[in-house]
Design a protein that fits this description.
Blueprint: E1 4-10, E2 14-21, E3 29-31, H1 35-48, E4 51-58, H2 65-82, E5 92-99, E6 102-109, E7 115-119, H3 134-146, E8 149-156, H4 160-179
Helix pairs in contact: 1-4, 2-3
């Protein structure tokens, strides 16, 4: 049985639809009205091997905060639904990812306990149309709704675009490892439940 989900979440500020398939990669379609985020989520889909479709719009005439946060919420909800009972998964995943001069380390646990440690510093960039501080908001919203523990650490980095790519690609790889099925088919916990 494929692990997949669809979540359609609407508020007075945003409308976000996410379709996620953890077992079948396909051509992803990402439309968030925020070009930089489209790029990051396209990278995430490609490097995780997940099937991901996203349609999102919101009050970006104010700023991108609500939409970035609500994308994290909706993707987290979609992940929690798709991962089902967590039987037969690796549970843990980590990845050290280089992106030119940037180097990120991402480690995570599909634990049922939401926690984010985010040790990333972006350079001040007054020319960028995207507010890089919103990346933390996206991951925090994802973690709380997916109920995972996530550590993201930037080891090196100078270019903000490269830093962001290293984070999203590293997250994709680590999550893919954690979601991968093993042969025993059991819940990976001595408690018998996650």
């Amino acid at each position: 049985m494929q692990r997949k989900s669809k979540i359609d979440r609407k508020t007075k500020e945003t409308a976000v639809f996410v379709e996620l398939n953890l077992d079948k990669a396909k051509v992803s379609k990402i439309e968030t009205t925020i070009p930089f985020l489209d790029h990051m989520l396209t990278l995430f889909a490609h490097h995780s091997g997940f099937g991901l479709n996203v349609r999102a719009k919101g009050d970006t005439h104010i700023d991108a905060h609500h939409l970035c946060e609500d994308l994290g919420i909706t993707m987290g909800l979609a992940f929690a639904k798709a991962i089902q009972d967590k039987k037969g998964i690796n549970r843990y995943g980590n990845f050290l990812l280089p992106m030119d001069e940037a180097l990120s380390y991402v480690a995570l646990d599909i634990s049922g306990r939401p926690y984010l440690r985010y040790d990333v510093k972006f350079k001040k960039d007054f020319k960028s149309e995207f507010d890089y501080s919103l990346i933390k908001e996206f991951f925090y919203a994802f973690v709380v709704n997916a109920k995972i523990t996530l550590h993201i650490e930037l080891k090196k980095g100078g270019n903000n675009h490269h830093i962001a790519e290293a984070i999203f690609k590293g997250f994709a790889k680590a999550l893919s490892i954690a979601c991968a099925r093993n042969k025993n088919g059991k819940v990976p916990s001595t408690k018998g439940k996650l």
